[in-house]
């Protein structure tokens, strides 16, 4: 069982990772996805203008659906990229847990000094993983924005 100090440090690392990820995702949403969404709304308005009061509703609906397609694809693309990023982060964190487990042997949990070293090893690994993945956020954002520009 992890010490309260380790748990607190792990939570701080988690908060650091989440804040960095949230900032990059907000950047993508605010600067790129909203533009695509706005174009979809403008396109949909043109569908209504073109259909007027007498155009067939199925044609209007098809037109509006086509207009919204890029926005839906943008959301799917972002979700897929974030999901892959989260999977890689989780796998890296599992490796940290495995490294800590590898240092464990029967009776070690009764030796506070040795358990401290195990926890320090795990925390150092987790900290490095978080820093590495924070560094991967900007390239991820650039990759997503590049793909989104092709949609919009």
UniProtKB/TrEMBL annotation:
Gene Ontology cellular component list: cytoplasm
Domain of life of the organism encoding this protein: Eukaryota
Family affiliation: Belongs to the FAM136 family.
The protein's name: Protein FAM136A
């Amino acid at each position: 069982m992890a010490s309260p100090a380790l748990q607190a440090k792990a939570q701080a690392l988690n908060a650091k990772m989440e804040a960095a990820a949230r900032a990059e995702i907000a950047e993508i949403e605010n600067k790129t996805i909203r533009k695509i969404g706005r174009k979809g709304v403008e396109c949909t308005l043109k569908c209504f203008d073109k259909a007027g009061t007498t155009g067939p509703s199925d044609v209007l609906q098809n037109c509006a659906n086509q207009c919204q397609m890029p926005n839906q694809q943008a959301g799917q693309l972002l979700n897929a990229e974030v999901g892959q990023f989260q999977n890689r982060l989780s796998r890296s964190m599992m490796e940290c847990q495995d490294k800590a487990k590898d240092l464990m042997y029967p009776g070690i949990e009764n030796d506070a000094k040795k358990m401290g070293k195990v926890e320090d090893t795990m925390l150092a690994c987790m900290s490095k993983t978080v820093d590495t993945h924070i560094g991967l956020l900007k390239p991820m954002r650039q990759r997503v924005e590049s793909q989104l520009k092709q949609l919009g």
